[in-house]
Each structure stands twice: as structure tokens, then as C-alpha cells.
Design brief:
By secondary structure, the protein is α/β, with parallel strands linked by helices. The protein has two domains: about 270 residues, Aldehyde Dehydrogenase, Chain A, domain 1 (3-Layer(aba) Sandwich), CATH 3.40.605.10; about 180 residues, 3-Layer(aba) Sandwich (Aldehyde Dehydrogenase, Chain A, domain 2). The chain has 15 helices and 21 strands. Helix 8 links the parallel strand 9 and strand 10.
């Protein structure tokens, strides 16, 4: 696949622009591409187009045509998988080995949209159960909710677009997508791929917006039927407050994923997945392992095993085969992580390993033991390659400490005792609890989402498709025979 370095706004009929967004590789700061910025007139054109498509039933794409387009898109992405992985690694900083896995998962996600579309169905609504419902037959079917507006994040620049955009296409909703300013190139490539697969360009429009006021105003437009947001909680909750009456939404924010461990846990098998879950993509994952609560007798051995795993993970240029941990998305994020680690150590945390920046853009995988409960690394989402281990006197104390943050996303428990596993499942504040696995496990057909400050709604391909449709009912009345 030829590497395209500049993209124009993908809004048919739009002529204006607000300049150019330069895209910088997070590892070395090199310029790797650019995207035309949308102005207010361009956004208006996109919204008008999307609303008109949904309002005219004659323009809607039948299910068989949507399936054919999605199949072709999956084929095209499979043919260009290596090029997409390399460009995604360069743009977002996720190591090539993990970017390849992301592309494979993206192809499977498209297949998931097709499977859900082929198997979803309405329901018969019982009638004749009382005199008022006599002589009636009722059923429901799925219909598209209307124009979808998707604002995406940087950390999975291909797969997040699959999660937000492709369910909209599958359900027959026109969609406008605004990728993260740090990683717009992967999004624009995917949207162009959809058009190449046969999707009329009006059905999926891509815009880059730098003007925050314009981005906020777009979210509040009454023509938006569904708003999908992946990003920081501060921004997501603010944007939700701007939605027009009737606009539905799904928000996916961050977390501070906890792990509860007891004395029966098998440390030999736990260390590898925990290290992967903590340091994968330099910790820039909303469900990465951040806080591990374990008995004092377990902590020293666990810390040594995690450090041994971290030592195997080479840090550096994410486009190289041997690299396991890439850069943080911006140098200022390295500054922040460094500051938080130093603050925790100054307040009494034990630095077991790591703890230093490697360069302007990279930070060592770091293990801290017993940072204070009120430190940033204990209370906030670190979003960096840092994991904290806490000494806990009991499973109950571990659960209590794990729940003592305003986030609730995914969690895990390591134990060979079923009662402990079930207790953790019942009592941990999380939508999903893993047993003997890291907190970042996910497949795209499972429910995935944050509770409390971590988000609103449930993601995963089938669940997102459900959100982007309405179940419309028909009730037939017939006189008695």
C-alpha cells in the first residue's frame, strides 16, 4: 500500500478548510503526514449530508449491500495488513508486534459486524394476555437510530475506528468521525478503504477539528442521533452535557485497573500476563494493570518476577521487530509520569525497578511498592508504564482498597480458591472481572465499558450495534373471526 502523507477532509461537497494538522511520530518527533482541518462550513456540510441521508428512506443501503461492503473492506484490510500495522506503529507509538495484532483484531471486528447483522432479529411481543390486547399481533424490528458522530482516541488508532465507525455502517447509520489529533492518519486511511470497498462517500465522512469550540458545538447539534466518545473523562463528561435533547451517547474513559491476589496465586504463571497487562503500549490503555494488592509474603517474589519480565521488554522505536514498549504519545506525558513517580518515591514508595526516563519520549517500565494511598499513582490513571504493588492484610482489605477510586472498568483476581474468585467477582467495582488473567484482556464481542467516572454505556461490537439502532414495534389489530 503506498504511504499517503496528506489527506483532505473527507466531506463530499465541502470546499473550505481551517489549515493543516501536521502529524508527528511520537518516538522521534519526525513529521509523517498531515490532514486538512475542517472549518465550520465543512462541519455544517457533513451534518447536513448525514441528516439528509437518514431522512430519505429511498437512500438507505439495504442490509445485503452493507454486508457486501463490509466483506470487501475486510478483504482490503487483510491485503494491506502489514502496511497498516507499520503506519499505525509509526503514528501511535504502539510496537509493531502489537500493531499487527491490532490489525488482525480489526479484521475480526469487521467480521463481527457482519455476523451480528446477519443474526440479529426482532421479537414477538405477547398479545392476547388480557382483554385490552385481544385480537392483536405485535413484533419489533431493528432500524438505524440516525446520524452517528464519533470522536476517537489515539491509543488504538485502527481498532477504535472499527469499534465506532463500522457498527454504524453495519446498522445503516450515516457516520461522521473525528479521530484524535495525534493519530488521524490511520482513521483517514480506513475511511478511504471503506469508500474503496463500495460505500458511498456520504455515508462515512471524516473530519479533523482543532478548534475546541467548533468540536463542542458539533456534538451539541440536534441532527446528531448518537454520540460515541473515547477519551478522557474530563472531556467526555463535558461533551455529554452539551448534547441536544434526545441524542443518545456512549462514553469510554480511563481507569486504574486493580488486581487482587491471595497466597494461593501461582506467581510463576501470573508474572507474564501481569507484566504484559501493565507495560503493553507503555501503559497507555484504559484497562492496563495499574494497582496490585497482595499479602506481604507475596510482594517481594512478585516484584522480582515482574521486574524479570520487564527486563525482557526492549524499549524504543515502535516500528522495529524487537521492541516491546514504545514511546508515550507526547513528551509532556513522559514529564508527567516522571513527576508522579518521583512524588510517590519522595512520599515513601519503594522503587523496585525502573523509574527513569530513557529519552524525551520513552520511560522505563517501573515497579513501585506501597506508594501512599493519596499519591497520584494510587488515585489517578497513570497512563504510563508504571505498576504499583500494595501490601494487604486480607482479600477483603484488597477489595476495599481497589474500590477506593472513582473509576470502575475492568479488574482481575489471582487465586486458586474459588470462594476468593467469586468474592472478588461479586464485590469489585468493575463491569468485568478476570480470574487469573490480566485486566486488559478483551475480545470484541464481550461487553466492554466503564462505570462511575470511567464511562457510560457498554461497548463491544454487538452492544454498540444495539445502541445505534432502535427496536421499532408494529402492532396489528384484527377483528375477531
Amino acid at each position: 500500500m503506498p504511504t499517503k502523507s496528506h489527506f483532505k477532509t473527507l466531506v463530499p461537497g465541502a470546499s473550505g478548510n481551517a489549515g493543516t494538522l501536521e502529524v508527528i511520530a511520537p518516538f522521534d518527533g519526525s513529521a509523517i503526514g498531515s490532514v486538512e482541518l475542517a472549518d465550520a462550513a465543512t462541519v455544517e456540510t457533513a451534518l447536513t449530508t448525514a441528516a439528509a441521508l437518514h431522512a430519505d428512506p429511498s437512500k438507505r443501503l439495504p442490509a445485503w449491500e452493507r454486508i457486501a461492503i463490509l466483506r470487501k473492506a475486510a478483504e482490503l484490510l487483510a491485503d494491506r495488513a502489514e502496511a497498516f500495522a507499520l503506519e499505525s506503529a509509526r503514528e501511535g507509538g504502539k510496537p509493531l508486534i502489537d500493531s499487527r495484532a491490532e490489525i488482525a483484531r480489526a479484521i475480526d471486528g469487521i467480521d463481527g459486524c457482519i455476523e451480528e447483522l446477519r443474526t440479529q432479529h426482532g421479537d414477538e411481543i405477547p398479545m392476547g394476555l388480557n382483554p385490552a390486547s385481544a385480537n392483536r399481533l405485535a413484533f419489533s424490528s431493528h432500524q438505524p437510530i440516525g446520524p452517528v458522530l464519533a470522536y476517537s482516541a489515539f491509543n488504538h488508532p485502527v481498532n477504535l475506528i472499527i469499534h465506532q465507525v463500522f457498527p454504524a455502517i453495519a446498522t445503516g447509520c450515516p457516520v461522521i468521525v473525528k479521530p484524535a489529533s495525534d493519530t488521524p492518519l490511520s482513521c483517514f486511511r480506513l475511511v478511504e478503504l471503506l469508500h474503496e470497498a463500495g460505500l458511498p462517500a456520504e455515508w462515512c465522512q471524516a473530519i479533523a477539528i482543532k478548534d475546541r469550540d467548533l468540536a463542542t458545538a458539533t456534538v451539541g447539534d440536534s441532527r446528531v442521533a448518537f454520540f460515541s466518545f473515547i477519551g478522557s473523562g474530563k472531556v467526555g463528561w463535558m461533551l455529554r452535557s452539551k448534547l441536544a435533547p434526545g441524542t443518545r451517547c456512549a462514553l469510554e474513559h480511563g481507569g486504574a485497573a486493580p488486581v487482587v491476589m491471595d497466597t494461593t496465586a501461582d506467581l510463576a504463571t501470573a508474572a507474564t500476563p501481569l507484566a504484559k497487562g501493565a507495560f503493553y503500549h507503555a501503559g497507555q490503555v484504559c484497562v492496563s494493570v495499574q494497582r496490585i494488592f497482595a499479602p506481604g509474603s507475596v510482594i517481594p517474589d512478585l516484584a522480582d518476577r515482574l521486574a524479570a519480565e520487564a527486563a525482557k521488554m526492549m524499549v524504543g522505536n515502535p516500528t522495529l521487530e524487537e521492541i516491546a514498549i514504545g514511546p508515550l504519545i507526547r513528551p509532556k506525558e513522559v514529564d508527567r509520569v516522571e513527576k508522579w513517580v518521583e512524588e510517590a518515591i519522595a512520599a515513601g514508595a519503594i522503587l523496585h525497578s525502573g523509574g527513569k526516563r530513557i529519552s524525551e519520549t520513552c520511560f522505563e517500565p517501573t515497579i513501585l511498592i506501597n506508594p501512599p494511598a493519596d499519591s497520584h499513582v494510587s488515585k489517578q490513571e497513570i497512563f504510563g508504564p508504571v505498576v504499583c504493588l500494595y501490601t494487604s492484610d486480607s482479600v477483603q482489605d484488597s477489595i476495599r482498597a481497589a474500590n477506593d477510586v472513582p473509576f470502575s472498568f475492568q479488574a482481575s483476581v489471582f487465586s486458586r480458591d474459588m470462594d476468593t474468585i467469586l468474592k472478588a467477582y461479586r464485590e469489585l467495582n468493575a463491569l468485568t472481572v478476570m480470574a487469573n488473567d490480566h485486566t486488559a484482556f478483551r475480545v470484541d464481542w464481550m461487553p466492554f465499558g466503564g462505570l462511575r467516572e470511567s464511562g457510560l454505556g457498554v461497548g463491544g461490537i454487538p452492544h454498540t450495534m444495539e445502541d445505534m439502532q432502535v427496536k421499532k414495534s408494529l402492532i396489528l389489530r384484527s377483528p375477531p373471526a
